[in-house]
Here is the input.
Amino acid sequence: MKNILLKFGFFASVALILGSCTKDFDEINTNPLALDLNSLENDPLLQGQLFARAQFQTFYSAFQTGQNQTCDIWSQYFATTQSRFETDRYAMIGGWIDNQWRIHYSEEIKQLKTVMDLSQANGNEVANAMAKISWVFAFQRLTDYFGPMPYFEYGNLELTVPYDSQEAIYSDFFVKLDEAVAQLEANPGGSAYAASDRMYGGNGGAWLKFANSLRLRVAMRIRYADPAKAQAEAEKAVAAGVFMENSEGAYVATDEVNFHRYQAITDWGEFRMSALAESILEGYGDPRIEVMYAPAEDGDSDGDGSAYEGLLNGQTVLTLEAGQNLNHSDMALKWKSISLGGANPPYTAMNAAEAYFLRAEGAMLGWNMGGSAKELYEEGIRKSMTELLNIDATAIESYIASTSSPVPYEEGAGVTTDIPVAFAAEPERQLEQIITQKWIANYGCGYESWAELRRTGYPKQYERVTSDNPDVATDEIISRSVYPTIEYDRNLEELQFAVDNYLGGPDKASTKLWWDKN
Amino acid sequence: MGSLLLFQGMMSQDKTVSGTVTAASDGNPLPGVSIVVQGTTQGTQTDFDGNYSIQVGQGQTLQFSYIGMKGQDISVGTSNTINVIMEEDASTLDEVVVTALGLKRQKKSLTYATQTVETESIDEARAQKNLVNSLQGKVAGLSIQTSGNGVNSSSRVLLRGNRSISGNSQALYVVDGVPLGGDINNLSPDDIASISVLKGANAAALYGARANNGAIIITTKSGVDGKTRVNYTATVTTEIPNILFDYQNQYGQGSQGVYNPSSVNSWGPRFGTLGQVENWSPNPEISQPLPYEAQPNNVKDFFQTGLSMANSLSVTSGGEQTQTFFNYTHDNRSGIVPNNELSRHNVSIKVDNKFLNDKFKLSARVNYIRSDIDNEFPAGAEGAFDNPIRYAYQLPRNIRTVDARVFQYTDPSTGSVRQNFWKPLDNGGANPYWTINKNLSRLENNRVIGYTSLTYNFLPNLNLLVRTAVDQASEVEVETFANDTYIIAQNGNYKKKQSKYTEWNSDFLLTYDKVINDNYTLNLSVGGNNRQATSEGTNVDNGGLNTPNIFTVTNAAQLSVNESFGERQVHSLYTFGQFSIKDALFLDATYRSDWSSTLPEANRRFDYYSTGLGAVVSDMVALPSFISFLKLRGSYAQVGNDTSPYQLVRAASTQAGGFINISDIAPNANLRPERTNSTEFGLDLRLFDSRLGFDLTYYKTNSVDQLFRQDVPIPSGVSVRFVNGGDVENKGFEAVLTANPIRTKDFNWNLTANFSKNESEVVRLNDNLETLSFGGPFINRFFLDVGEPWGNIYTRGFVRDDQGRVIVGDNGVPQKTGGFSVVAGNVNPDWLGGISNTFSYKNIDFSFLIDIRQGGVVTSVTNSILAARGVLEETLIGRDGGLVFGQDVFSNLNAVKTDGTPNDIAVDPELFWNSMGGENTPLGEAFVEDASNVRMREITLGYSFGPKLLDRTFMRSAKISLVGRNLFFFSNSAPFDPEILTGTGVISESFESFVPPVSRSIGMNLKIGF
Here is the structure.
């Protein structure tokens, strides 16, 4: 018995030593495939790749459901041909909205916050400015989508996150831009994240122009909500120097791995040219139609002498089930899959033409925009034409002088407006022309065009065939996306507070945003 | 050590005695009877023919013992032949069960619930798709559901309900005392000697963390001392699909009553109203008009009768020192969907060797399994766009099989091969015959399971076991999609997944048995285990092809590559013992310490223990004579659990194109181990010479301090955080009834019935957290709600007024709630049951098993989509003139218009079903099905050829059996088999999405011994 006890004791102690030998456990529990966050702290190369992801994902993330089948459709660049997609009939699709919220917060806002924090800690002012500008750009798209959102307390790592009013968010946009501009001006010739930045290769001077142009865009959005601030900020932007040339515009480069989403989703055949696009572009004889849309596969099916065929928005399941792809225009080859000869173009964040149209609107109001409304409007058209086409000047000038107006997209359909290209005399018609031309120039930028549609009501749209949304009639437009169910699930009290105090109406697609006084 | 050698036999063994041991009941030879020379360690076993031979001295006593038989002691006289006839022991109490660590124990000494499964017929019935399915309906408290992946499916195996919030409530598998890394789906039934199920944490405390969901303990066959024996088994099984959805045969392709050859719907004109219609084929060379007629069998035609063939050859040989068991099994299966095939080779060899005067015993086993599987069905609700069943079920009612089978054509203008489908380029549409012929996958899995163990007997009652065991599998899956596979592979696509896991356990166990005196016995063991588990994987997705249909990684259009890796190590030390008094009162205790690499340093070690008491009352006090046996038992156990690797720090990862992304998971540097506390009480009662038995168990388990991912508001900067919290309680009752109502010389009837009822409650989640979503498909969400049973299903529902009446909109369609706000039910069954009957008459045996699952609900994505397509019979209502909701359909609901008056608005059924069903925003409440069912799980009819017949052949034994599985439902309210899941994850119990049709299998099995 004693022997046995000794043996037990021996094994027990050997085992205890073996068992408690956990020296290598820390190493075992370190993921060899992951990066330690600490390694990012002082490494501008790694931070640059963090920044680049945010920059890219701003456009790429949830593109199909968050932009193409929503913003692009609601601003009537396209009509949906996929019967099972209900957004063209104004339905709010919960899963899509969840994605839009989750992915954009996590793919770009989270990354940009980290870059802002790290670059601040590193004293990298240019990088810090780039992150702030990108933040304003990305967040404006989000708040214009939903309205009040968690903003100032973003990243609190708590179980509840308070919302902020859209007014407060917009006012911080100007603060962020002020800070960024100051940082860039303090570092003339400065550069950051040169190897990673997909917009300007880290060129601080180019970022400065983008900051000013973005300020102009942000300012114009609040023109009806806060006219004084809008004018002051717009004039400040123009004085500091906005985009003058196409080469200065903000584009995010794509490549074969990180590509333009259109070139993937066009394969799926889920949308076609809208009736509105056909009406406007054919009415104006607009040469840009070639790089925007392709002739329909079935050719000129409505007999109007052109193979560009647009589809009225809001088609029913039943009409779509019949198949609308072959007899309506797809996007132009440039946007199609690389394997089909598509160009995989860069994403347009903001082009020079838009800066001119914004200035034209300001000038129309008598703001100091460094030119007359007419000059700036016409220069905007010239910039867009030369950005998109290799075209000679006389063709552009004759387009600018043209008095032709939109045509019915099919026989007997009527038109939405009679405005020509040639600049009108009456301010309201001028505004309609400016926004309509901006809509053409911003092809592929559905976020911006949907926001401007809500702000101004232009371009005037065809009435949809059906609405599945009891809050928004066929002749009305979607004013915002409802909040995602994941916020109702996870952040209900704060959400409810925001709806009651900031939103200015129920959480519906018909509730207008703070800046939307149209 | 010299003194240890004294224990060899002291008496000379001067003669060889041999003989045959047979059973009194049927005269058949008994293999495996243990024969020991009394007072020595000398012993042997009978071979397959019941023969034995042993060296023994005259005057010594041979002790014959066999499970379920009364032991006999026979004194050796002058004769060299001793034939023994053994009688069944009415009390069958010396039943030996395999418990934790591969230890064999007398069942009567156990202080917790375990159930041994009859394995005699598992190599005959050969559960289709997965070995574990042979346990269906046989074990109280065990729920087994199968994923609908075709010929090779995994199973969701739960003992006593769900308990783990973080996801894995599935039982642990243990083979020959060693935990597996994977499941047992590809093990061969011909290798299995016994299966026992340890149901609770109480039984499994010794396996530590992974066994807190219970364990399924498998012992493989060994060689036996005796002559060389060869066994051959052949099984042919057919599998017959049975589609339960009712299709309509009155309307064909189109919409609004108008024929449309490119429609995927069947809302077209009534059959008989059109003669010939335009051909749907996009092939310009096929233009002859088609008859517009119902094709009642077009869905059924897509399926075929599956055929499986299994052949197995095993060789047993051995002498006194060394015994070997070899088995080779080949499985060949073709499924009910063409091109879904499996080929599996399974080779195993086991060697047991005693040496140095039996002081040492060396055992080793290697099992190599190679599986090749073609075209498994993908599982999942959304995105499973290469699931052929999805497309077959949606066939418009006029599409002829003969036309659809022509799944491709050559485009005369481009020369390229295109898909022949009625709605070209449809996102989410395909010709099902295209899918099975052009969207191919093949999977190759190589798995090795093996162990080596060395046991040293210091003394007859003191031994040390040292063992190391590996379960390693590597798998390569290649998917090739031809061009014109809509949306997902316009130019074709290529995917390759490679994965590998290794589970390596090394352990030692020192065991000491001490009979203190006639009244007291002590068993004491100390053991330790080192567990190293790694898994890794690489997934390549070409994201389309540059050159169509060249399936190589280098031809990628948009290559994406994913890499994963996980590693953990757990050191464990444990001790356990049993103290028994008069072989009637048993006291058990275990204690275990684990050190896990996945926990923070301060919490790395966690200790837990169990204790139990069993009293064989019938051995202690005099009971009325009709009570053969009565045992009471009770136990308490605690099991700790660690977490998965890499949860302690927030990390960043590199992404395609060099991007860097920061994790969305907030880490927790202070994680604690989670614990399961389990209490159980049981009663084992046998009456009337043990011809009637009851085994009753009540249990209660609480899994507390659970580690799980809690969803947090996205704007907090992360989307989930990893927390300790949660308490899930399961309590329930299990009953097993065994009866032997008739027992005569020729006829025997055995009945086993089991019943189990488990009630779960989510007692706590976390501070301020009352509900936890697990997400779900478009049709439902899976939630845990505090105070409610595990697994509530939420759906969009009908909008109701304060009287509970359903409000119908002006268009006649019921209003739909905006979000998933309606609790549509709970996934858990109310109770499970099984009734098994075995009859034997002379050489014929017959058995059947009825399996019952009562309660629980499941939502049906399939039903929702098929209804919107207009292919189901229920969509016929109102095709002429519309239907009134609440009257013509859903008449059980009280429907009112917005003004509160009864609904009388007629609505077009096409609009109605598209609003109710479809893919993206179905009104899930309308597609909830009761998952209750009662089925004939298994019937076997066998005939054993008698010795008279066999004596004239070269065969030693032969048996032929007819086996049917899943033959029919006594009742089943859903239009699908609720047992077939879309996967084996937690939420998979909540919905059904285009799983394969229910199938019955009928087979024939032949077993021959030489």
In short: The radius of gyration of chain A is 26 Å. The beta strands of chain A are 35-36, 78-80, 250-252, 271-273, 347-350. Residues 382 and 393 of chain A are 8 Å apart (CA to CA). The mean pLDDT of chain A is 93.
